[in-house]
Write a structure and sequence with these properties.
Blueprint (H helix, E strand, L loop, with lengths): L1 E6 L6 H15 L3 E6 L3 H9 L3 E4 L9 H6 L1 H11 L3 E5 L1 H14 L3 E5 L10 H15 L4 E4 L2 H9 L8 E3 L7 H4 L6 H7 L7 E5 L8 H9 L5 E5 L5 H9 L7 E5 L4 H6 L3 E4 L8 H8 L4 E4 L4 H4 L6 E4 L4 H12 L2 H18 L2 H17 L1
Parallel strand pairs: 1-2, 1-4, 2-3, 4-5, 5-6, 6-7, 8-9, 8-11, 9-10, 11-12, 12-13
Length: 373
């Protein structure tokens, strides 16, 4: 089987990570793989190591840029025509539109994975409605749509994106060996930052973009009695977050680490994971944190409640609710036994429901179903 993946990948977030994992699996199964992507260094490096044929598209950028977006259509069209895949698998909104329009002209079967719908809650309803109509049109030319959460699956039905027989729900999965093979803990980072081994560490991992709403987290942290916060990642809000940290009393409590390659080690050495997000699909970072045995504090957004059982594996709070966020963080900061109990419950859930092997097998079945038609 020849599979061509198309992903925006303006940053190494959930969708590029997902695609890299899928490419690794299908190449191991003996299938030939191609990749159409923005020139994201880590994604391309991983693809080259797998022997994947790469078709870079520099104009694949995350923000809406109409002229650049239009210019992506031709290189995507050329890549599909040159690679001659059996199936195209597109990921993320912008890449999904480009790939499906090209496949329509080429009469090429295409699968689309929605890593959180653009018309999800957290935006004004009028904007959600317009985005949903665009997605409905794109869905006319899609053989199968994979939703990464039950929330997204239900949302697709609610907005009548496609018939139910063209929708399938496959939860994201993480490789547990990332954590069993992690060879160190947070000790090196603690020494680097001057954090005592007895201090409780709260960690955030992700893009520093508006949807992640780091400002709500910082407001809550200002009110905490103790604890240190590690922010791992980079994005368009980095300067705003940095300014807030430096202009408040957070300078000695919040550490902006930028992008790191040792995230499993950092999570294993942390005590609490937090995600203050306004909209989501099914966050990889939460699954990873659960596998690392951390209690998770996150907003009720997208598929997050499918991961975090409120009061069991962590706590769920409302969007932009810094007061409630502070309350549950204090409860965890002051109760080591509760942190351990919730962390172990989360690890058990992640290991049984959100493994990478399950995700791979279910996705391969979708490929086979589409090709059998």
């Amino acid at each position: 089987m020849k599979i061509l993946y198309v992903v925006t990948a303006a940053g190494f977030g959930g969708a590029p990570q997902h695609v890299l994992q899928l490419m690794g699996y299908v190449t191991e199964q003996g299938h030939k793989v191609g990749l159409v992507s923005a020139p994201e260094p880590r994604l391309l490096e991983g693809a080259r190591a797998l022997g994947v044929q790469i078709f870079p598209v520099p104009d694949f950028v995350r923000p809406v840029r109409p002229w650049k977006d239009i210019r992506t259509l031709w290189p995507v069209f050329q890549a599909i025509r040159n690679f001659e895949p059996d199936v195209v698998h597109a990921h993320s909104t912008k890449a999904g539109y480009a790939a499906r329009l090209a496949c329509c002209f080429l009469s090429q079967p295409v699968i689309f994975t929605a890593h959180g719908w653009a018309f999800s809650e957290g935006r004004p309803f009028w904007k959600r409605w317009i985005l949903a109509q665009i997605e409905r049109f794109a869905a006319l030319h899609t053989a199968k749509i994979i939703c990464v959460s039950q929330y997204d699956y239900n949302l697709a039905l609610q907005f009548r994106i496609a018939a139910e027989d063209r929708l399938v729900m496959i939860h994201n999965g993480v490789n547990p060996s990332l954590f069993s093979h992690a060879h160190s803990t947070l000790e090196g980072v603690r020494r680097e930052l001057g954090i005592s081994e007895h201090e409780v560490v709260i960690t955030f991992v992700g893009r520093l973009d508006p949807p992640k709403d780091l400002l709500t987290l910082l407001k809550a942290v200002q009110e905490l009695p103790f604890g240190r916060v590690l922010v791992v990642g980079y994005g368009e809000d980095y300067a705003v977050v940095e300014k807030m940290v430096n202009s408040s009393d957070l300078r000695n409590r919040v550490f902006l680490l930028g992008e790191r390659s040792d995230v499993p080690e950092i999570l294993l050495g942390s005590d609490i994971y937090v995600l203050t997000t306004n909209w989501e699909g099914l966050p990889y970072t939460i699954i990873e944190s659960m596998m690392a045995g951390l209690p998770v504090v996150a907003t009720r957004a997208g598929g997050v409640p499918e991961l975090v059982e409120d009061g069991v594996t962590g706590f769920l709070v409302g969007r932009k609710d810094a007061v409630q966020l502070k309350k549950v963080l204090v409860a965890l900061l002051e109760n080591k036994a509760l942190r351990r109990q919730m962390g172990q419950a989360g690890k058990k859930k992640a290991m049984s429901e959100f493994t990478m092997d399950r995700m791979f097998h279910e996705t391969l079945r979708v490929y086979e179903e589409v090709l059998s038609r």
